[in-house]
Structure formats: C-alpha cells, structure tokens
Amino acid sequence: MRLIDYYNYIATAAYILMGVAALYFYYSGKKKGSPVLSDRMARIFFVVVMLVAAFLRLYKLGAVPYGLQQDEASIGYEAYILSNFGIDRDGHHFPIYPITWGCGGGSPLLIYLNVISISLFGTGIMKLRMIPAICGILTVFLFYKTLRLGFEEKSYRNEASVLGAAFLAICPWHVILSRWSLDSNIMPFNLMLSIYLFLLASKRKSSLLYCLSAASFSLCMYSYGAATIVVPVVLVLIAVYSVKEKALTIRQLLAAIITFAVVFAPLFLFYAVNYLGVPEIITDVVTFNRFTAARTGEAFASFGDGFFKGIADNLKSMMLTVSIGNDQNTTAHYLKGYATLFAFTFPVTFLGFVFGVKELFTKGSDEKGQQGRILNAMFVFVTLGSIILDLVILPDIQRLVMLFVPLIYFFVLGAVFIIENLGRVAAIAITMVLLIGGVSFTKDYFTGFNRWSVSIFMPGYGDAIKRAYEIAGDDRTIHSTYDGLSAPFMLALYYTEYDPYRFISTVKYKDEAAEFRIAESFGNFFFELPQDVNLPEYEGDVFVVSSADRERFSNISMFTEEDFGGYHVLYK
Predict the structure, then answer these.
(1) 508-533: buried (b, 16+ CB within 10 Å) or exposed (e) per residue?
(2) Mean pLDDT for the stretch of residues 219-237
(3) What digits encode the pLDDT tens for the residues 369-387?
(4) How far apart are CA 217 and CA 219, in angstroms?
(5) In the predicted model, is pLDDT for residue 301 greater than 60?
(6) DSSP characters for 485-516?
(7) Among candidates 340, 442, 363, 378, which has minimal Cα distance to 202?
(8) Greatest CA separation found in the chain?
C-alpha cells in the first residue's frame, strides 16, 4: 500500500471517533463548542482559499492533463467551425443543439461559450480548458457566498462558509473536473449560480431574483443531459417547500415558471423535433435538426430481466463513488488513492446527511433561519434527484455531476455539528485532516495524473497528426494508427483546424447510424494502417504510428522519423 492508503485509514478513523464523541456530548447535553472564527478572520481565510482554488485550476492547465480527450476535441472543433464558418460538422447553421457525434455528446452551452472564446482569443488547448477552469474558481466563490446566506442565523456561519469553500477548493473531483473541457464540467457552476440566486431571492423576497434563478436553472438544461431529470425534480420539490415556508408566493412562482419556460423554449422545440415528430427547422440563421441516432444503450439502463439487479448495481457503484472511491468508468475524474471527495470524509458527510434530512422535516417557527432551511432542502432535493438519475442511467462520475456539491454541503453540516459539540480542538483537527489530504492530492496530481490518464487524453497523438498534415498537405495520403486511441479522427480535426466543408463532403463513417459516429476516413486521412505498410504503393504516404507499430516497417531506417512522445510521424 502507498502512504495515502494508510492515511485514508487513519483519517477515516479520526473522523469516526470525532463523530461518535460529538454524538455523545450532543445527547448528554454537554456541548463544549463556541465559534472559532471572527468575521475578519473568515474574510482573510476566504482570500487564501480563493488563491489556492485559482492555483489548483490554472497551474499547468495546458499540460496536466497532457494531451486531449476526444470529447474535448469534439467540443473544441465544433466551436471553432461555428465561430469561423457558422456551421457545425453536419453543415447546419447555428444549431440550437449541435448533435456532434450524432446522438449528441456535446451539450450546447459549453460549445457556444467556446464560440465566444474562440472569436475573442483564438484556439488552443489552454484556451479550450479556460472556461471550465474559470467556472471552477467561481463555483468555490458561489459556494462560500451561498453558505454564508444559509448559515446567516447560526453562530457557526464563518466556520461553515470557510470550511465548505476550502473543501471544494482542494476537492479531487472538482480540481480534476475544472481542468479539462467536457460539457458536464461546467454544471457545478451552473447549479451553484441557480441555488445562490434562489436563496438570495428568498431572503429579499425578490420576484426578479426568483426569475433570474429560474433562468439559470433553465440554462442548466443546456449544460448537460443529466439536468433533464435532476432539475425538474429539484424545482418541483423546492417550489412546494418554499411556498409552504411562505418564502415564495404563488405570483412569484408563476413568474418563475414563465421565465423558465421562455428560456427553455428553444431546447424544448429541439426535443419536440426529435421525440414528438415535429418537422426539422433548417435555416441559414438557426437550426432545429434531428439526432442521427438515439442515445439509449450506452447511457440508459435496460428494462429487461436484470433491471432490478441493474438498479442495485447502480446504487452500489454510486455509494462506492461517494465514499471510498470507484475507479470503474471514472478515470478522467479520478486519481487512484483519492476518492471523489477523499475517502476519509464519508463518515462526517453521512452524519451531516442524516441531520440534513432530519432538518427537512423539522418545521421552523418563523422566518428566522428560513434561508438555512431552504438551502438544506435544496441540497437534499438535488441529492434525491441525483439518486433517481442513478437508477435509470449507467453509473459514471460525470453523469452524477450534480451530486457532489450537495455532499460537500453535508460534510459541512457534519463538521459544524462536531465543532459545536467538541469545540476549537475539533475544528482544528477536522481542518488539518482535510488539508493534509489536499496537499497530498496536489503533489500526486501534478506529478502522477498524466501517467494515470494516458489512455484517456492520448498524449502526443494530436501534435503528431498535426505535423503529418503539415508534411502531407491535401495531396499525400496520411495513414493513422488506432493503437491506444479513441476516435482519433476527432483529434485530427481539432489539431489541424480542418475545413468543415471538405470534411462534410469526404467523410466516411464506420456506421452512419451508430450511436456514436466514428469516421474511418476523410479527405486524405485514413484512420487505419494498411495490412502491409511496406508495399510500394504506400511509398509516398505519411504515417502516424505508435511505438509498437514501428516494428511493422521492415525498412524504417529509410524514413524520416519525428517522435512526439509515444507517437511517431514517418515519411520519405
């Protein structure tokens, strides 16, 4: 075992002991706690937390992770051609929902944010990842502000807000998520903005803020497909709860519903085209087109004989993910030894979840503490919505992206309970255990993540295929390996900034009707090495090969060879 594995056991035991001791003092009526942080100290610590959050999300952003994942390349290329040519890679003008792979796979919001970014700053891996990184930093800020609102009437407001922001700032899941460009990776920001606006609206009794929150929740629907299940569940439940709490009037609720519907209307029309038989709307200005395939088997659980076993397996996978860690289908959001929210935090998180659910059913006597009750209800409902989502989809960290900020909130609830009952020493102990884990994660992430994720981000290939195109131009044939690669055609498109009209007119997909369309060739690119690379007919061609593929060339010394770290360009 590694040092971090031993630390996880020790830290978990420490948190369990503190939780048990806090429960003992709570039920025996022997509370020892008192607030630790003044408002001034909280502000100072918050500035430090934001600096740490910014560093962890911006340092070596273009190099860790090294390379480019195929969905990143897809989002980047789609944004590039929309920005420069006004079409997507199917030839449609400004689609409301670019269908990318054919069944989606790159939700609209991040693509169009990148259209703006490319128009202003141009292309590049660091620029492609800058939007999730900035959203990640802002999520820490919003979480802090939201906790201050939610704990406004409680004596441990400063401890809760600083601890929550600090945890999110160093959280393995959120740091990793903020450093690469997948559509789901901006969802935590969208969710926190929506929740913060709702909580602020409930405090100020502001119809305008409720409408802004509704608009923000509606934008979540453009951000990632999981929102289509989670967000309606959350909104229905929080609306009922807030009306019952007298924090939301019927008039305000109607105004918010109308706002949500207006913002959601274009996406609803797209769904109507795809699922309700409405004809496609294709113009030179905007497009509502159909998917080329339905996304079912790859993402959704099947309703067959093994349905209930599938549900049990999904729940088991989710529990592993939120506790000790689960490295199945999560490589891009996971580093071995570091669970999504650190393995050792789960005892405190579970304690906080129990008190959070209990508080949901505790009726408040007046408006005092109302923001806290509403915030607690919001995070309980997001958790419930995420559990419902987990029952119907195949488990994956990115699909459960809305679950983890609520879990950090429950950790804060559990930690505050411990501090209330055990005092200043417990506050220091909880914080130090978390910070040691954060320091260890930071070291291992920046020194080891590239080795851990090599199969995901395909380092070296993008630069190699770009160099091959520089050599070959549009005249010489380029043969690419498939060794160690996923959808290499997508990286070729992004790195070469390939002309979309030429792509559309020449692309040959392996299966046009497949759930994910994968190109076997376009233009002079062929994504498969010939059976015999030594035949004379390939004499003038350019090859991109893996280190293992080099053995197939009997006369490799006759080629000019350029090495790009695992992938090589061969040409004469």
Answers:
(1) ebeeeeebbbbbebbbbbbbebeeeb
(2) 94
(3) 889 999 999 999 999 999 8
(4) 5
(5) no
(6) -SSHHHHHHHHHT--HHHHHHH-EES-TTSSS
(7) 378
(8) 88
